[in-house]
User: Fold Anaerobic ribonucleoside-triphosphate reductase-activating protein from Alistipes shahii.
Amino acid sequence: MELLRIIGIYPETISDGYGLRYAIYFAGCAHRCPGCHNPESHDPRRGEPLTVERAETICAAIAANPILDGVTLSGGDPLLQPEAMAAFLRLVKERTGQNVWCYTGYTLEECLADPARRECLRWIDTLVDGRYVEALRDLSLDFRGSSNQRIIDVGALHLFG
Ligand code: SF4
Assistant:
């Protein structure tokens, strides 16, 4: 399994979901949405590898910050390499117990249809899904992206028994 790669971390941000969040931006996206606001994130070879040691360091930093409201995964597309992401998500949940948001270009339905992405949903609390549509940008009601993206309470879907 290839290592995930990180192109940026914001230890405290109010721009990536509800409240104050630890945001991690992952390299790599295959969607190529016209008008993408972050094309430099598309190459999965960019950034620094997420080694086991780095993952533990990140989790320790999250767990040590008592004022965080949660963790946000963005990119790129965090679900481009879903097997590796599921393992990281599980580690974040086990080490920090934090609420997790994930911004992805895949729709919820596409995630459910793919076993590895479905497994990622097990560890995600809120999914902001769907490809970016530049023409809808001015209508957007969410934190960023376009108005066709949905903010989905994954836990409320009761996908896992
Ligand atoms: S999913 Fe996001 S990062 Fe990927 S091409 Fe679309 S807007 Fe850009």
